[in-house]
Amino acid sequence: MQLNKLLENNRFWSESLNARDPQFFKRLAMQQRPEFLWIGCSDSRVPANEVVGLMPGELFVHRNVGNMVVATDMNLLSVLQYAVDVLQVKHIIVCGHYGCGGVRAAISHQALGLIDNWLRAIKALYHQSLHEFEGMDDEQRVNRLCELNVQRQVRNVCHTTIVQNAWMRGQDLTVYGWIYGLENGLIKDLDSTISAPDQLDEAFLYEL
Known about the structure:
- This protein is 44% helix and 14% strand.
- The chain has helices at 3-20, 24-30, 48-51, 74-86, 101-107, 115-118, 120-128, 138-158, 161-168; strands at residues 36-41, 59-64, 91-97, 174-180, 187-189.
């Protein structure tokens, strides 16, 4: 597809929204007030706004390979702090997807380059959870690890001082773990919701 086609698509999209609501872009340019932060995978098959039916301005988004929440990732932490402290989002959604290429690569022994370092935490999670995969075939193992990875990243979000500070000052903030099915377009709630520090292991609590 030529880049000119993308520009044509953009004009059509803009004109369509303007036709439905002539004031939409004027309102959007003034401010953003999303209630949701989405932490998802970079996979092009999982367009964050579209899969939950939200318009521009309604979903603050951070994406990376494997929907990871890494304590040393300044990009993620900057997004998280801005979302929580400035935008004051009420909901943080960590959303992975079945068949994730990053998770599949973490299970394999193939050297892929720089990304191997990024995926090391998923590889460690796999080896910590080997009992979870007994009797499973390769695809089942990948998909189960996708779920476990989302659940781990939910807790990683809650282990940050950013989220714990918000709770300490009484801010309404809940973190969810979801997973998206590429084959049916449906999202599954992984029952990993955390909304208060007393749901965390004591070792990860800060005296703030």
